[in-house]
Amino acid sequence: MYPVSIKGVVQAPDGRIVLLENERNEWELPGGRIEDGETPQQCLAREIDEELNLPVEVGALVDAWMFEVMPGKRVFIVAYRCVLTGAFAPAVSHEHKRVGLFAADALPGNLAEGYRRAVLANRI
């Protein structure tokens, strides 16, 4: 069995995508591990609040894939579209180095292909 991580495609009010830089110096979508008793949507709303202090409503599923985080370590990623429900004033938590805002057509090179695909699927 693989760990499951629920991720969200969140757009800033100007349309740019919110990404977080992790300890491996890679950009990723906000989100995290689902806990017992949570729905994926509850997990994602909680994780985005914890990681960015942003209120969101979790919408439609945009993609799911198996991600090899590092050689031999795989995580099943499920990504949802998210919509801000309050002010946009992200505050990065201790879990990440920094927050970045990127246009969907100008995503950073060190963003895994699955995350890139989820961002582009969100535009449809």
Can you summarize this structure?
This protein has one domain (4-122): Nucleoside Triphosphate Pyrophosphohydrolase (Alpha-Beta Complex), CATH 3.90.79. Helix content is 19%, strand content 40%.
Features:
Nucleoside Triphosphate Pyrophosphohydrolase; three-stranded antiparallel beta sheet; 124 residues; globular
Report on this structure.
By secondary structure, the protein is α+β, with helices and mostly antiparallel strands. The protein has one domain: Nucleoside Triphosphate Pyrophosphohydrolase, CATH 3.90.79.10. It has a 4-stranded mixed sheet with strand order 4-1-6-5, sandwiched between helices. A 3-stranded antiparallel sheet has the order 3-2-7, with no helix packed on it. 29% of the residues are buried.
What's the arrangement of secondary structure elements?
Layout: E1 4-10, E2 17-21, E3 27-28, E4 31-33, H1 40-52, E5 56-70, E6 73-84, E7 98-102, H2 113-122
Parallel strand pairs: 1-6
Antiparallel strand pairs: 1-4, 2-3, 2-7, 5-6
Give me the side-by-side strand order of the main sheet.
4-1-6-5
What is the chain-wise order of helices and strands?
EEEEHEEEH
Look up the CATH topology.
Nucleoside Triphosphate Pyrophosphohydrolase
Main structural class: alpha+beta
Shape: globular
The residue ranges in which pLDDT falls below 50 over 5 or more consecutive positions are: none
Give me the number of helical elements: 2
Strands, count:
7
State the domain count. Answer: 1
**Fraction of residues in H or I helices:** 10-25%
CATH architecture: Alpha-Beta Complex
According to CATH, what is the class?
Alpha Beta
